[in-house]
């Protein structure tokens, strides 16, 4: 297992390229199960979660070809198994996204229950209720979801909670159902829209994606397509916050400024000067210390829960006191105790943390516990005085492509090393 060793205290400056979005790539790769022709996906990020998805598809007999320039081709005409085993699902909850397509196209699926994870219980009851309303017979036993159906039937499905992968699973299933499906209280995330656009390129009839009511007119069959995944707004936001927290100047290219408005608004409040172009966004702190911000996470277009931990780090070194409230997941503050070990002044009250900014943080050995918590610790390492070692970085590799190389491009002193190496200065 590797660790990241960071020598902090230097403003980040320069330009970096955003990768394709993890949370769009994973459902889009799963959509390959809806067809028996190749789905060619461009701008695929090189991430552990994408590797896991490719392994999951491959073990089902899908032929997956990884080409140059971030293009992946998946051809499910060779499918032999409809099982998503525990060994793969446990490493990536998004494996649940194969359930809807398998059921719609093949009439059966056996998917390990994803279970809870570090950030919360994360049930999949809404996915299962929606598929049941479309005519599936579902049982849950021995840790597996077993689902069967003839041709699914269109239904009106009102979801109790806004769920991103729930919306995506039901939307994919409905593309091949008989009749019309209406998803109410649907997730409005850009990644849901990206999936809908990809499905439409495959011949589906999905409308309303991006609003809270999505209508899907089922068709008999879909066909192969070539589709380019949208840029990763969370990766984009993470680099911008890294620039702001270190009092630097960072421009993210190959991205879409419209995707990160909730984030750039907060960075402006923190004192950053934001500039944008058609496919880039930049923050410039002009050497100033950031000001604390208050924020509350909520589904899109609200402030993304996947950026909450990074803003905890920003507030930890900002001027003033900022409060951060998490409303999407019940337990997404594991980074707090690690940040405290680096000198952050953070107090938790229920689902809110109150962060009193410090003039500086101090480097320390810290442990990553989930993907975005890991990112917040890397950012803390970049601003801290002295050396920080972030352990268990397999979490960060799930969702950030070559993070140390991209941060090094911005002038960070950061190295990936095998764990257990002695603590020493990064030159
Ligand atoms: C691969 C992917 O796209 N992951 C994203 C997706 O996760 P994911 O799709 O798993 O998250 P959801 O949107 O489903 O979760 C939102 C809330 O709904 C609850 N819930 C969800 C489904 C369900 O059947 N029952 C239920 O109660 C969850 O426990 C959570 O409290 O959206 C999250 C919220 O923006 C992001 O943090 C994740 O990065
Ligand atoms: C929570 C996340 O991912 P996942 O839903 O795959 O766990 C994330 O991307 O921050």
UniProtKB/TrEMBL annotation:
<feature type="binding site">
    <location>
        <begin position="22"/>
        <end position="23"/>
    </location>
    <ligand>
        <name>phosphoenolpyruvate</name>
    </ligand>
</feature>
<feature type="binding site">
    <location>
        <position position="328"/>
    </location>
    <ligand>
        <name>UDP-N-acetyl-alpha-D-glucosamine</name>
    </ligand>
</feature>
<dbReference type="InterPro" id="IPR013792">
    <property type="entry name" value="RNA3'P_cycl/enolpyr_Trfase_a/b"/>
</dbReference>
<protein>
    <recommendedName>
        <fullName>UDP-N-acetylglucosamine 1-carboxyvinyltransferase</fullName>
        <ecNumber>2.5.1.7</ecNumber>
    </recommendedName>
</protein>
<dbReference type="InterPro" id="IPR050068">
    <property type="entry name" value="MurA_subfamily"/>
</dbReference>
<keyword id="KW-0573">Peptidoglycan synthesis</keyword>
<comment type="pathway">
    <text>Cell wall biogenesis; peptidoglycan biosynthesis.</text>
</comment>
<dbReference type="InterPro" id="IPR001986">
    <property type="entry name" value="Enolpyruvate_Tfrase_dom"/>
</dbReference>
<dbReference type="InterPro" id="IPR036968">
    <property type="entry name" value="Enolpyruvate_Tfrase_sf"/>
</dbReference>
<dbReference type="GO" id="GO:0008760">
    <property type="term" value="F:UDP-N-acetylglucosamine 1-carboxyvinyltransferase activity"/>
</dbReference>
<keyword id="KW-0961">Cell wall biogenesis/degradation</keyword>
<keyword id="KW-0133">Cell shape</keyword>
<keyword id="KW-0132">Cell division</keyword>
<feature type="active site" description="Proton donor">
    <location>
        <position position="117"/>
    </location>
</feature>
<dbReference type="Pfam" id="PF00275">
    <property type="entry name" value="EPSP_synthase"/>
</dbReference>
<dbReference type="InterPro" id="IPR005750">
    <property type="entry name" value="UDP_GlcNAc_COvinyl_MurA"/>
</dbReference>
<comment type="similarity">
    <text>Belongs to the EPSP synthase family. MurA subfamily.</text>
</comment>
<keyword id="KW-0670">Pyruvate</keyword>
<keyword id="KW-0131">Cell cycle</keyword>
<feature type="modified residue" description="2-(S-cysteinyl)pyruvic acid O-phosphothioketal">
    <location>
        <position position="117"/>
    </location>
</feature>
<feature type="domain" description="Enolpyruvate transferase">
    <location>
        <begin position="7"/>
        <end position="407"/>
    </location>
</feature>
<keyword id="KW-0963">Cytoplasm</keyword>
<feature type="binding site">
    <location>
        <position position="93"/>
    </location>
    <ligand>
        <name>UDP-N-acetyl-alpha-D-glucosamine</name>
    </ligand>
</feature>
<feature type="binding site">
    <location>
        <position position="306"/>
    </location>
    <ligand>
        <name>UDP-N-acetyl-alpha-D-glucosamine</name>
    </ligand>
</feature>
<keyword id="KW-0808">Transferase</keyword>
<comment type="function">
    <text>Cell wall formation. Adds enolpyruvyl to UDP-N-acetylglucosamine.</text>
</comment>
């Amino acid at each position: 297992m590797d660790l990241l060793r960071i020598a902090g205290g230097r403003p980040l400056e320069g330009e970096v390229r955003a990768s394709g979005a993890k949370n769009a790539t994973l459902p889009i790769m799963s959509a390959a199960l809806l067809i028996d022709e190749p789905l060619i996906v461009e701008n695929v990020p090189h991430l552990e979660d994408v590797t896991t998805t490719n392994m999951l598809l491959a073990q089902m007999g899908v032929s997956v070809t990884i080409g140059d320039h971030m293009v992946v081709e998946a051809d499910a005409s060779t499918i032999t198994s409809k099982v998503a085993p525990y060994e793969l699902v446990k490493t990536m909850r998004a494996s649940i996204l194969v359930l809807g397509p398998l059921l719609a196209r093949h009439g059966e699926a056996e998917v390990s229950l994803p279970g809870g994870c570090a950030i919360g219980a994360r049930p999949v009851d809404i996915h299962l209720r929606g598929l049941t309303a479309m005519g599936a017979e579902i049982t849950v036993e021995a840790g597996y979801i077993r689902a069967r159906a003839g041709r699914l039937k269109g239904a009106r499905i009102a979801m109790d909670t806004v769920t991103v992968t729930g919306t995506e699973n039901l939307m994919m299933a409905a593309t091949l159902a008989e009749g019309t499906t209406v998803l109410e209280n649907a997730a409005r995330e850009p990644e849901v829209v990206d999936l809908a656009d990809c499905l439409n390129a495959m011949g589906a009839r999905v409308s309303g994606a991006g609003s809270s009511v999505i209508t899907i007119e089922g068709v008999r069959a879909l066909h192969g397509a070539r589709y380019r995944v949208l840029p990763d707004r969370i990766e984009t936001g993470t680099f911008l916050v890294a620039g702001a927290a270190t009092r630097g100047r960072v421009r993210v290219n190959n991205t879409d400024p419209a995707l990160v408005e909730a984030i750039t608004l907060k960075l402006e409040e923190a004192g950053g000067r934001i500039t944008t172009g058609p496919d880039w966004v930049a923050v410039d702190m002009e050497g100033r210390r950031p000001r604390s911000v208050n924020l509350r996470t909520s589904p899109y277009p609200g402030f993304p829960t996947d950026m909450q931990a990074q803003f905890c780090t920003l507030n930890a070194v900002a001027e003033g006191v900022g409060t951060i409230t998490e409303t999407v997941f019940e337990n997404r503050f594991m980074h707090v105790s690690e940040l405290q070990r680096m000198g952050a002044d953070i107090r938790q009250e229920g689902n809110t943390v109150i962060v009193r900014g410090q003039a500086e943080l101090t480097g320390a050995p810290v442990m990553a516990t989930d993907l975005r918590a890991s990112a917040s610790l890397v950012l803390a390492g970049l601003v801290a005085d002295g050396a920080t070692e972030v352990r268990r970085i397999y979490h960060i590799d799930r969702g950030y492509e070559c993070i140390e190389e991209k941060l090094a491009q911005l002038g960070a002193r950061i190295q990936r090393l095998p764990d257990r190496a002695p603590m020493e200065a990064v030159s």
